C-alpha cells in the first residue's frame, strides 16, 4: 500500500510503500522521546519525496551517521536516514495522513542503542 505523509505546514510531502501490518517502533532514546517519533523503516526504494526538498534542514548528533530531516518552517521531522539502516528511510508514522490500519507498535530500547540496533537491520531490505 502507498501511504502519504507531510510535515505540519505541508511544505514537505512524501509517499511511502508499506503493508497494513507494518511493525512500528516506539523508541525511548532522547530525541524520539522529545519529538514523539514512531518509526516505520523501509527500503529507500519504498520512499519518495514529493515536495519540499529545499524546505528541509538536516540535524546530526553523536556519531553523525543518522541524517534527521526537519521542515525549516514548522520544525517537524517527517523522516530521516537512520544509523541502524543507512540504506533505508525511517518515516514518522505520526506524519502519515492515514496510518497502517493493522500496524503493530513494538517498544525499542534506544537508550541502549548499541546493544539493540541489530534487531532493526532487516527493515531496510526489500521483501
Can you walk me through this structure?
This protein has 127 residues and is mainly beta. The chain has a single domain, classed as Metal Binding Protein, Guanine Nucleotide Exchange Factor, Chain A (Beta Complex). Helix content is 8%, strand content 38%. The strands form 2 sheets. The chain has a 7-stranded mixed β-sheet, with no helix packed on it. β1 and β2 form a beta hairpin. The chain starts with a strand and ends in an 11-residue tail after the last helix. Keywords: Metal-binding, Zinc. Belongs to the Gfa family. It comes from OM182 bacterium MED-G28. This is Aldehyde-activating protein. One of its GO terms (molecular function) is carbon-sulfur lyase activity.
Which properties best describe this structure?
127 residues; mainly beta; Metal Binding Protein, Guanine Nucleotide Exchange Factor, Chain A; seven-stranded mixed sheet; CENP-V-like; Mss4-like_sf; zinc
The number of strands is 10
CATH class bucket: Mainly Beta
Could you please say which CATH topology applies here? Metal Binding Protein, Guanine Nucleotide Exchange Factor, Chain A
Shape: globular
Side by side, the strands of the main sheet go 6-7-8-9-4-3-10
What multimeric state do the chains show?
single chain
- How many DSSP helices? 2
How many domains in all? 1
Keywords: Metal-binding, Zinc
Family: Belongs to the Gfa family.
Domain CENP-V/GFA: 3-114
Protein name: Aldehyde-activating protein
Amino acid at each position: 500500500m502507498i501511504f502519504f505523509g507531510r510535515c505540519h505546514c505541508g511544505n514537505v510531502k512524501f509517499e511511502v510503500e508499506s503493508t497494513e501490518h507494518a511493525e512500528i517502533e516506539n523508541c525511548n532514546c532522547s530525541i524520539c522521546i522529545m519529538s514523539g517519533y514512531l518509526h516505520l523503516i523501509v527500503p529507500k526504494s519504498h520512499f519518495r519525496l514529493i515536495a519540499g526538498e529545499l524546505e528541509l534542514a538536516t540535524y546530526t548528533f553523536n556519531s553523525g551517521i543518522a541524517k534527521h530531516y526537519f521542515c525549516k518552517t514548522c520544525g517537524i521531522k517527517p523522516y530521516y536516514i537512520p544509523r541502524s539502516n543507512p540504506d533505508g528511510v525511517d518515516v514518522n508514522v505520526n506524519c502519515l495522513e492515514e496510518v497502517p490500519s493493522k500496524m503493530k507498535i513494538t517498544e525499542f530500547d534506544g537508550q541502549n542503542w548499541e546493544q539493540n540496533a541489530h534487531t532493526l537491520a532487516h527493515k531496510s531490505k526489500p521483501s
